[in-house]
Amino acid sequence: MNGAGAASEVVALATHLGVTVATAESLTAGLVASSIAGVPGASAVLQGGLVAYQLEVKQKLLGVDADLLAAAGAVDPRVAAAMADGARAAFSADIGLATTGVAGPAAHGGKPVGTVFTAISSSAGTETFEHHFPGDRDSIRAASCDAVLTELLGTLSKGTNSGRG
To answer: What are the CinA C-terminal domain coordinates in residue numbering (predicted)?
Structure first.
């Protein structure tokens, strides 16, 4: 499923469930929030989003632990989880989404190009996903956006456990 299709389904299902969403994005730099916002009716769902490209932003605005960032770097499943939790808290949303990874052109922090971690934070807990996408910078960023929207759709499909319950 491409990002536009998943975003439409996300908005429809989240609206039906009365669930709000917030994003914290590193490598996707707003693509996820933009995909959701591009769907008519998104204002019922999207609380807001934060582009957290730099470590300092991840720490200060999303509450990612400085020691974790120093030890693991930005491309780590624990960082993705903390970003999703931080987005959920910062925007008082039912669900927080996060993307962090290496879009290229070169490896970063010992992680090869295409390594991406996404996370979904909800009242049911925080789940992380590891991806290894092929392609150039644009295709890796698009695949990351598609992946987290599809993961969100899966969380929403579980029903009330994803929201305020």
So the answer is: 7-154
